[in-house]
Amino acid sequence: MGTEDSNKSKLKDAILSALRGTDGDSMTVNDLRKEALLSVQGDEDDKDDKKNFKNATKALEKEGVLTLSKDGVAMLTAKGKKEDKRKSSDAEKDGGAEGGKKRKRRKKSSDDDDDDDDQKMEEDEESSPVESSKNKTSRLFVGNLPFKVDEASLNEFLSGKMTHVKWITDINTGKFYGSAFVEMESLQAAADVVKSKNKKELMGRQIKLNFAPAKPGTTWPPEKRESRGNERTGGQARGTGKVPMGEKPDGCLKLFIGNLSYKVDDETIKKFFSNVGSEVKRARFLYHKETNDPKGCGYVEFWSTEACDKAATLNGKNLLGRPIRIDWTD
């Protein structure tokens, strides 16, 4: 199998894995793309990765394992659900037998020449997550996490061998995706948890674990044990709630606001900041180009630096039931 075919197969598996990890076997296409591409170390903003995702979903739709609605929702079909159950059942039944087959193959090859024996050994190692030469990384992708998860509960789930965690969040809104990258204390620890914990439940959700080598140029592991962000940005703390702000520009008059309810409008923002005596000059919300749906973030400008400073003190405070994320911006 060529590299291109292999990557396509991995992406299709990631798509199905993401759908099978949800409660209703369905997700919006946008959320599915984010999770699937994260799982295979893709970039949701890269045109080629987007095209590959689109081709993979179309192929799966053609195979009859998922459907795509006009409303932008991807859902597993009865065939897709049935295949998942069959694979899980086969894995449980044949786990020991599969290991036996590998041992028999190794034994049979012992009478062949050295080259054949080495080839068989390589095949066996590649099929084992513990010894695989392909998986020489202690960095893992963890998907389908419950939103209540924290560093302590995730570390306990990963057998207490986790040294760092980076919670994956939206670059604009700061919203927690329900996935993370983690660093394990050793290659063996990483391989062990992938083998023993993949598809096991944490707080009622089936967790997905994959090896995830850091991309070139990525600082890994992070300086702090717990951080947040995505592959292009950093930060401290996870999920929602109060997020530490960055460095304040001189004479700052504008703030970034994220994790907003889609019901927020200009009047709501003005009333919110008026609670600390800050008068809003103008507010600008961001929207998705394709659908014109709100992104849940935007920018607010104030008449004075003093008003901007006061407004910044509301970072992490609730607005329409959501802890608003605030940061300085030029």
Automatic annotation (TrEMBL):
Keywords: RNA-binding
Domain of life from the UniProt record: Eukaryota
Positions of the RRM domain: 138-214, 253-330
Signal sequence region: none
Matches recorded under PROSITE patterns: RRM (PS50102)
InterPro entries linked to this entry: Nucleotide-bd_a/b_plait_sf, RBD_domain_sf, RRM_dom, SLIRP/GR-RBP-like
Gene3D superfamilies: 3.30.70.330
Bias (Acidic residues) ranges: 111-128
One Pfam family cited in the UniProt record for this chain: RRM_1
Bias kind Basic and acidic residues: ranges: 80-100, 222-231
Record's keyword annotation contains RNA-binding: yes
Region described as Disordered: 77-137, 212-244
Classification via SUPFAM superfamilies: RNA-binding domain, RBD
Molecular function GO labels: RNA binding
Protein name per its UniProtKB record: RRM domain-containing protein
Biological source species: Pseudictyota dubia
